[in-house]
Amino acid sequence: MTDSDPVRLYRTVRLIRRFEERAIELVHAGEIVGGIHPYLGQEGIAAGVCAALRPGDLVTGTHRGHGHVLAKGADPARMLAELCGRVTGLNRGRGGSMHAADFGVGVLGANAIVGAAGAILTGAVWARRRRGDDVVGATFFGDGAVNEGMLLEAFNLAALWRVPVLFVCENNGYATTMPVDGAVAGTIAGRAAAFGMPAAAVDGQDPEKVREVTAAAVARMRAGGGPELVEARTYRFDAHHTFEHRVRLDYRPPEEVAAGRSRDPVDIAAARLPAAARAAVDAEVEATLDAAVDFALASPAPDPATALDHLYASGLTARTGGG
Ligand SMILES: Cc1ncc(C[n+]2csc(CCOP(=O)(O)OP(=O)(O)O)c2C)c(N)n1
């Protein structure tokens, strides 16, 4: 379904927002070990892009990937259980925050390696198209990925082989603490031009605008038009990673943070709904997340005896060491 649906877009941004806030509580409570990279402030991008995709289309995401997985349709309870490292998680608790995947809804995985997800998606969509499947894909990456060789190689092969992949740059202005202006020569869209790919910039805070731009690109890609790039301009409302909640880093001026936070994708999506519809979605999301937290915390951790399971395809067994 690619038509504009304000209720659906609001539900998605609100679900991601509240999921992240609940996950941060669980980090502070010691239930999510190792912390997370919150997607707060960037929800409009995942919501808008995924609203323009079909259920069978494919996505890959980043270390800041919870929003991508949820927007594509993964079960929030199993996603939260994954973050908590529980056996009921999407990946039996072995992937965690940065490697959650749900093939059933076309999520081939979040990815902790900056710049890697685009190459994985390009290969996957190419293989599925060769099989005759009518799929397209969208891959998300930050501004910090735009000089990574793997991503540029993916641009090249996708363009050369006309693989229908939408490369979605979530430009939040920083790679950890490094401002984009201090790291990126030229422009992000200019990288697409080098490979003959069309590129567009969009206000990433407005999920409807993101959906519109994506729907147009996806229509061209389904018609054989080859890959495209979208630069979604956004702002990260919270820390790069929850470790910053303990060690406040001083790399963004307070006025900049306040200005960035003043354009909130949840508010922008909410303003398109009557108050009663908004309240109904809020209640539904809260009930979903209450149930998700209960489910995750009631689920057991994996049995340590199974630590070597799932490391190799069937037929191979792991060596336990010693030669
Ligand atoms: C190949 C690689 N290099 C470095 C890192 C360490 N690292 C993790 S997140 C990050 C910053 C990424 O910034 P960006 O791509 O802009 O995404 P954002 O965190 O802003 O969402 C870096 C350098 C990594 N994970 N992978």
TrEMBL record:
Its cofactor is thiamine diphosphate. The keyword Oxidoreductase applies. Residues 12-298 form the Dehydrogenase E1 component domain. CDD domains: TPP_E1_PDC_ADC_BCADC (cd02000). Pfam families: E1_dh. InterPro entries: DH_E1 (IPR001017), PDH_E1_Alpha_Subunit (IPR050642), THDP-binding (IPR029061). Keywords: Oxidoreductase, Thiamine pyrophosphate. This is Thiamine pyrophosphate-dependent dehydrogenase E1 component subunit alpha. It comes from Micromonospora fulviviridis.
